[in-house]
Amino acid sequence: MTIDLINAQGRLRPVLKILTDYPRDDLAHDEVHQSLVTACMKRRIDFANLDVGAIPGMDTVTSGFKTAQLVLTSRLGYGHIFHTNCAPRKNIVSVKSSGEKIALGMTRSGVALLAVNAGYTLAHFQAAAESGDIAFFQTDVPHSGSQFRSRDFFPDAMAELAAHLAMQAENLGATKIESLLAEGRMGDILAGLSYLREPLNHAALPQIAQGTACYVDNFGNIKLNYHHSRLLSQHPAGTTLVLALGHSVSDAVVGNTGFSQGEGILAITAGSSGWALRGGASEPFSEIFLRGGRAESHFSGFRPGDPVLAVRKEDLRAVWEVLQGADRAVSERLDLYNISDARLIQLLSWAKLIRDGFDTAELRKSLDAGDLLARLAA
After folding, report:
1. Residue 295 sits in which domain range?
2. What are phi and psi of 4, to 5 degrees?
3. CATH number at residue 313
4. Alpha-carbon span 343 to 348, nearest angstrom
5. Is residue 185 part of a domain?
6. Of residues 242, 269, 271, 273, the one with CA closest to residue 344
7. 180 and 168 in contact (C-beta within 8 Å)?
8. 130 and 228, same domain (yes or no)
9. Residue 16: what pLDDT?
């Protein structure tokens, strides 16, 4: 953990980062930035940096992944404060303009997070919360009464948190804060914050499946939430997989790193995103990567949150050979007369012959046992 933002005099100079679903050139973006600066000035917060970043509108999968990547890899530690606001407001039909509530989190390294608990925003923190690397709390930050909560309410909550952490730095000192964080006593550090409420059980956090397409970067690479070391343990480098995503399938070669394949070859490799839990080494997630092009162009009709399903090319060929021997009843039941590779891979997943997107051990067992048709038709 680090406490680099506390100076020799015991004063905290926080670093503040808002992620909100307004484009950087939008008026709303500038209003949120201005509101946060105002809230900090009123509280005499001597911040080291303050920034408002953009995330895709209404896309809680992407916003949650981006937030987790930044929070869980931060090297600044105590005093690094994030706020993520991506809230579709499913209950918008209300004269109170009520939206989802704010959750407050703090990692064992001291990084703090205020996030609208909407959709999948907190799903990417599930493993970290379960391991004790981050603790979440309910809050009573106002979540109704304004159509523009991210300007009218949320900056004040972020500034109050910064002021509270600065006060704790002076009252407790860096050594005590470091000790409390090491013991996982984040609640003791946050105690006294006016809007802090009861702990949020990690079991209540939303779940997101392994092998999900979570983020498409500026170069068209598709970032997954699947640890690449796990993929390599099942499909060694050089294996050709057939990937199904959205309405499309495409061959992809398993690689060790992003540039392990030649230009123009679609690859699934170790990407640039990933984080460590409980002080372990950072584990990169898999990434669908196309050197010299955009990997996303190979797949149509997908959105972040959709599963990526994979099967070895030779295994898919073996499945087709089995299906060619199916009788009429099975063919009609499975609609084999109108089936595509994408649909077939989906059927294999529904039959639990593919698990977590990439684990095809059950499929190979079924092929060896000769019971594939029975398991598909069950």
Report:
1. 213-377
2. -65, -20
3. 2.40.30.90
4. 9
5. yes
6. 242
7. no
8. no
9. 94
> What tens digit of pLDDT does each residue of 55-65 get?
887 889 999 99
Tokens at 100, concatenated: 């989802």
Q: Do the beta carbons of residue 372 and residue 319 sit within 8 Å?
A: yes
Beta bridge partners of 136: 105, 200
Residue 231's nearest CA partner among 197, 256, 202, 206 is 256
* pTM score of the predicted model: 0.89
In 3D, which of 134, 108, 111 has the Cα closest to residue 123? 134
Distance from chain centroid for Cα 300: 22
Clarify whether residues 100 and 163 are in a common domain. Answer: yes
Question: What is the total count of domains within the chain?
Answer: 2
Q: Three-state SS for 277?
A: coil
Residue given tokens 């009252």 in the structure block: 171
Residue 363 lies in a domain: yes
Q: CA 341 → CA 145, 198, 248, 345, 371, distances in Å?
A: 50, 49, 9, 6, 20
CB neighbours of residue 280 within 10 Å: 9
What pLDDT, on a 0 to 100 scale, did the predictor assign at position 30? 86
CA dihedral 168, 169, 174, 180 (to 10 degrees): 20
Q: DSSP per residue over 8-21, as a string?
A: TTS-B--EEEEEES
Report pLDDT for 148: 66
Model confidence pLDDT, tens digit, residues 211-222: 999 999 999 999
| pLDDT recorded at residue 91 | 47
Q: Tokens 């199904």, residue?
A: 244
Q: How far apart are CA 318 and CA 309, in angstroms?
A: 17
Domain boundary, last residue among 204, 239, 270:
204
Say what the pLDDT of residue 89 is.
53
Owner of token pair 């900056």: 155
Write down the pLDDT at residue 241. 97
User: Which residues of the chain are under the pLDDT cut of 50?
Assistant: 1, 91-98
Last residue of a domain, one of 204, 239, 258: 204
